[in-house]
Specification:
The chain is α/β, with parallel strands linked by helices. It contains four helices and six strands. Strands 3-2-1-4-5-6 form a six-stranded mixed β-sheet, sandwiched between helices. The protein is globular, with a radius of gyration of 14 Å. The two termini are about 20 Å apart.
Length: about 150
């Protein structure tokens, strides 16, 4: 499961472009390993599914090339949808290993009121520039996720 913050703030300092480069490499690896993916795009007013429970394929590149940024950061909605999907998936396929990757700059009005993630999680903080809020690290702590800076 991948959650991509595609809010307007990710255009600053080229954060979305760097995140897309990382995702491109990740998708290529997932394609070679025949991994099932689910991708939530968090931008605008609500999160929406970009790819749901399908094997990685070349059409992911088309989605990634067209991925733009705008609007708010509905990360709380994305986390709610992701956690529900992960819970259902765990019940349906208990032998399958679930993982969650979150790419965000953490520029949120409020941190989502969430508990620990239901599976191993990595939060990659795409925030860059001279003024940093550091909310990505705080969100990672709430989720009990491994924290990484994109830099």
């Amino acid at each position: 499961m991948v959650i991509v913050d595609a809010s307007a703030s990710t255009r600053r300092q080229g954060a979305l472009g760097r995140a897309k480069a990382l995702l491109s490499a990740l998708f290529e690896q997932a394609y070679r390993q025949r991994v099932q993916l689910a991708i939530l795009q968090a931008g605008g007013r609500e999160a929406r599914w970009a790819w749901l429970d399908r094997k990685a394929s070349a059409s992911l590149r088309d989605w990634l090339d067209g991925l733009g940024a705008g609007g708010g950061t509905p990360l709380d909605d994305a986390l709610d949808q992701a956690f529900q999907w992960l819970d259902r998936r765990e019940r349906q396929k208990p032998a399958e290993r679930q993982r969650l990757l979150i790419l965000t700059d953490g520029r949120l009005r409020e941190l989502p009121a969430v508990g620990p993630s239901p599976c191993p999680t990595v939060l990659i903080d795409t925030e860059s520039g001279p003024i940093r809020l550091g909310r990505g690290r705080l969100l990672a702590e709430r989720l009990r996720a491994d924290y990484r800076s994109l830099e």
